[in-house]
Amino acid sequence: MLVAAASVGITASYFSDTEKSVGNTLSVGTIDISINDQNPWSQQFALKDMKPGYTDYINFEVQNAGPSANPVDVYKRIIIDPLTAFSTGVQTEPECIEENGTWDNAAKTCSTPTAEDNQIDKAIKYDLIVHVFDATGTEVWWQTIYDDEVSIKDVYYNPDNSAYDRYVYLGLIPAGGKMKVEQSYKMAEETTNWAQGDVMTFDIEVKAEQVKGKVVLDNKIEKKDDAYYWKITQADDIQGILTFVPKNPTFDFDFEGYAPSASTSYTLVVGTDPWFSGKTIGTAVSGADGSITLNGDVELSTDLKDKKVWLVLTADWNEAGMTAWNPTQYLFETGLIWYDDTNL
Fold it and tell me: What is the mean pLDDT of residues 317-325?
C-alpha cells in the first residue's frame, strides 16, 4: 500500500490600515533678554556724593521681547571683588583721626592708620521692588523684596565662601513682557567719619532662565495704604516651596513648607487673581508645628500661564474666589508660575 503525503501551505491575510503623520517638527525655544533696550547691557551708573541719610537710585527695565520669546525666571546679583572694589578715594582729616592715623594737613595725607576701613558695602541700606508687565503692557504683578532693612552686604555677600555670589530671585517675566526693577541705595544714618571719601566699585548682573517649575510662597506683609507694598518676610521660616512639571498633560506637583497657623486646613489655589476666581490644586491640614505637605497629579484641563498661586485658609475659599480676607494667615507666590497643559 502506497501512501502519498501532501503538504499544503496556507498564507494568512488580515485587514489593515496604515496612516502616516508627515512633517512633524521639534523646535528649541530661546532665552534672550534686553535691559533698558540694550543687548548686551553696557550702561553704567554712578551714585555720587553719598552722605549719611542720603538715598540714590538705580532703576532699569528688563525686556523679554522678540518673536520667539518664552517666559523667564529672572535673578539679580551685585558683584563686588573684596580685593579691588574698595578704595579710600579722597582722604580727610576726620576720617584719618577716626581710623587712628596721623594727619598731615600740608600734604593732605594720613599715615599709619591702625583702624583703616573703606568697605562701605555694610553701610549702604538697600531696597528692591519689581513690577511685571505682560505683552500688552498691562501690569500684572509686583513685589517688594527688600525695604531698607538690610545692607548690600547682607543681601549679596556669601560668608560661606567669602564671595559676592548670591542671586536674588526677582520673579517671572511673561513672554513678550517686561519687568521694571527699582533699587534704592541709602547710606545709613549712623555711618561715621570712617566712610568719608571712600569709593566702592561693583557690577550688576541680571540672569534670565527658562521656567523650571519651582516657586517659593511667603507670608508677605501688606500695607493698607499702599497697594504696591507686598513685601517678602525675610525674618522667619513661614514659607513653602511648590515644585511642578511645567509642561505636562496633568499638573504634577509637590508642596512642602510651614503654614502661618498650626493644625489648620489649608488649600493651595491658583489663578490670574484668586481673589475673584481660580482653581483648587489641593488641600491639607498643617501639623502641630505648622508643617504642611501637599502633592498630587491633577487634571486641570487648562494652562496656568503667568498665574498667581496662594496657600489660603480652606474656610476662606471656594472656586468662585475668596470668601474672606485674612492675609496674615496665607502664603503668596514670590513669582508668577507657568504651566502648559499638553493635553489641550
Answer: 93
Sheet holding 34-35, edge to edge: 34-35, 55-63, 178-187, 124-133, 139-151, 226-231, 221-223
Domain regions of the chain by residue span:
31-210, 213-344
pLDDT band at 7 (very low <50, low <70, confident <90, very high): very low
Cβ-contact 170, 181 below 8 angstroms: yes
Beta bridge partners of 270: 279, 309
What is the phi/psi pair of residue 300, to 5°? -95, -25
With a cut of 60, say whether residue 10 has pLDDT above it.
Answer: no
**Is there a contact between 268 and 255 (Cβ–Cβ < 8 Å)?**
yes
| Residue (of 131, 121, 127, 126) closest to 60 by Cα position | 131
Rounded Cα gap, residues 123 and 173, in angstroms: 32
**pLDDT at position 28:** 62
What is the arithmetic mean of pLDDT over 193-202? 92
Which residue, among 93, 126, 112, has the nearest Cα to 194 in the 3D structure? 93
- 213-344 CATH: 2.60.40
Per-residue pLDDT reduced to its tens digit, 136-189: 999 999 999 999 889 999 999 999 998 999 999 999 999 999 999 999 999 999
Please give the pLDDT value at position 260: 98
Contact yes or no for 243/236 (Cβ under 8 A): no
Spatial CB neighbours of 234, under 8 Å, sequence gap ≥ 6: 146, 149, 150
